[in-house]
Write a structure and sequence with these properties.
Elements: H1 11-16, H2 18-30, H3 37-43, H4 68-119, E1 126-127, E2 137-138, H5 139-142, H6 165-170, E3 195-196, E4 203-205, E5 210-213, E6 218-221, E7 226-227, E8 251-255, E9 260-263, E10 288-293, H7 302-305, E11 306-307, E12 318-321, E13 324-327, E14 329-331, E15 343-346, E16 356-361, E17 366-370, H8 375-382
Parallel strand pairs: 5-11, 9-14
Antiparallel strand pairs: 1-2, 3-4, 5-8, 6-7, 6-15, 8-16, 9-10, 12-13, 14-15, 16-17
Length: 394
Amino acid sequence: MIPYTFGFDTDSQYRKSQWGAAMSLMDRVSGRLWLPCSAARSRRTTPVTADIPRAATHERRPTGGFTLVELLVVIAIVATLIGMLLPAVQSAREAARRMACQNNLRQLCLAVQNHESTKRYFPPSAAAVAEAGKSPWSGQALILPYLEGDSLFKRIDFTKPYSDQANKDLFPPNGVAAQRVDTFVCPSEPNARAVLDPATQLPKYFPLNYGLNTGAYFVYDPATQTAGNGAFTPFTRLKPGTFTDGLSKTLALSEVKAFTPRCQDVSTMPTKAPDSPAAIAGLMGPNWSADGGHTEWVCGRTLHIGFTTTFPPNTVVPYDKDGKTYDVDISSTREGVVPAATTYAAVTSRSHHAGGVNSAFMDASVRMIQSDIDPTTWRALGSRAGGEPVAVPD
């Protein structure tokens, strides 16, 4: 195409004219560079675009994408929505875990009642089946055959210790003690893992999250064969008639944390319960473990399968060791270890749920007990025959 010059012979005349100025403006807008008119007439060629980038020679077309600002706005809106929804999702999940925890407690209490209906007494917190002090079965273990759906555990021979080879052969390689029982584990427990055998690195024990109420502080005296005032006592068969406070007003089980720091077989434990959690630190002895409490659901000792009402739920019992502060449990000589030694224990009920602990009563009712419950009320709920006028918290 040859540009028209409208009668002008030279390029300068063409450029000076109004028509030339208009055409020049149109050429610049369209991004096209025209040859001089004389060259166009002589060479009869098309406009040259060699000095203009390729992209500039094409007409711009509107695109369907987002601008950077629009993308940033969308990202900000999505981030805000996620920030608003995430707490709600987490809250819903925790509510579901709390309900599942309460259901576990209810199932355990129903198994306790089924045990009583069958044998006419409640299971003891510890049951000796061999010489004194050797592998006493826990009360939780004794109710396994009465848990719905746990037919496998009906094969356990409770006339022999859990360490006996016959019971080990049922659940190789380390026996029933290494088995996880889902009903014993709170869904919110972050340490739901087996204790490994140091020699073989195979599972040896499994923890639990629901402890039996073994009293306020005094647990058991083998010399007189007397026990504490809890709902479950070592080597003793309690019947419903001994619960003069009423089954609905006596704590059966409450939450505990797995792998609790603990000190056991302390010889300096006083016969009267300490008034303050801070007093416990002065009683700690050499038999210390940073994670040895509530790790063996089969072992019928309070440090592993129980709690006492010495302190209210979730009370921090501080103990400083090696530059770290631990929240501890403590016990004198464990149940049955020494034939003439009395057992005292301060083993606190603790939970991974915020604000309190899930607790079950002997009538199988389950409630969340707040951490700020009055200590006197908490101890009264822990006694089966104290005669205290106490109202069960809603």
